[in-house]
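PROTOCOL LOG
Step 1. Enter all chains and additional molecules of the complex.
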Amino acid sequence: MGTDRYAYLSRLRRVDPVAKVWVSLAVLLLCLFSESIAVGLVTLAVMSVLNVALGGQRTGTVLRFMKVPLAFLVIGCLTIVLRPIPAEEPALWAVWLFGRFRWGITLTWLHMGLMVFCKAMGAISAMYFLALNTPMTDLILALERLHVPKLLVELMELIYRFIFVLMDTAGRIRVAQESRLGYGSFRKSLDHMGDLVSLVFLRAWRKGDKVYTALESRGYDGSLTTLSAAYTGGGRVYAWGAAAAALQVVTLLLERRLLP
Amino acid sequence: MKQRSYSNVRLLAAMAAVLGLSTLSASAMHIAEGYLPKTWAFGWMAVCVPFVVAGFLSIRKKVERSPRAKVLLAMCGAFAFVLSALKIPSVTGSCSHPTGVGLGAILFGPTATTILGLIVLLFQALLLAHGGLTTLGANLFSMAIVGPIVSWAVYMALKKAGVKPAAAVFCAAALGDLLTYVTTSFQLGVVYGNVAEYLTIFAVTQVPLAIAEGLLTVVVFNVLEKYSAAELRELSVL
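Step 2. Run joint prediction.
Step 3. Record the structure below.
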């Protein structure tokens, strides 16, 4: 599902997930803290290239995932750029709505909107470096090594597993309903959707019960312990991460220099 | 003059359409990675900390009392994730996804919902790129703290006041949903000083959705009441 399907194919799959977590977070935070268009674009480029070159993802895959948050960002940044402005303020473009409100674009806010857009795209590509190269199960085990409470880690493991079970259940019920002329009108849609949701809930609850019984009959004492897979050291990832971070810092300094 | 006001109306309509349609898309409810400036991103995280700690302690108490609760809670979390992936029928003909805020809060209580919400939001951020890591705090606050608490409080208050269960469930789910949207638009707007803009967009597009989700939750509850009274009693909803 989602990025996970590709993470299993990644060439960095066997690399220590903790290294990938730190590198992604460091690059992401640097991008967020520098608040500049150039750094955002550099981060976007570097992390996407790393995803393709180091992780072995196809370019198309990376591009497709970059499109996911685009809808939100375009709207979010349009509302920053296009806004009510005072009558006396100079604007690049402005229009009077109903002769009373003045809406338009000013240079400051255009810059702000662009900055937010580039910064967010950079941050997202840094997050994808983690998501597209680390299967969720490895990531959850890594969280335990990072001292996330055991209860939370176990809940995450169980939830992750159950998501697929329930998705499958929901998908089957949906097909069954649709093949019996379900979801015809708004009223019917509501009824059928209600059936679907409550049935999935019921099945989840009962399945949970069965899973517990199965666990208990195998000596469950309140915690699930699993061995983590053997990982190769994260040295190379750390090195590339350091290079990416250095590039970000250099870009930031250059921008500060050139654009006062 | 008349010509100009027409073109204004047209512009406004086009804008509402563009802004409105895309807020209906699935990822629009979640604030994307990197959209919030650092102070706000970390500020919202700090705000969430006490709620998360309280939720964690309450879950731990439940699990210590009976280990079965852990497996059942996990099922509930997975249910919340699947619920948010389903398409909800909408009056306007377009589709959106239920937040599950009201249903979760009524079924599991607001404290457990916070923790389940945290895990589900993390999965959504990493697996589907809905939301993000640095915006996790803001998203958690609107969807797993404000919404559920409002839903739960409304449900409890109406139940105590002797309102019909269906009406109580509808109000709880619809209001929880609406407050989630209001919180999100506040979080988005307050940063760049255009709260009113966001609130207008959300009011137009999300009010019908809140009503649809309210109706849906009522239907779900009716079915659950009919077929799984035992499970609901165990959750101490009834």
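Step 4. Note key features.
The CA atoms of residues 86 and 121 of chain B lie 15 Å apart.
The first helix of chain B runs from residue 2 to 23.
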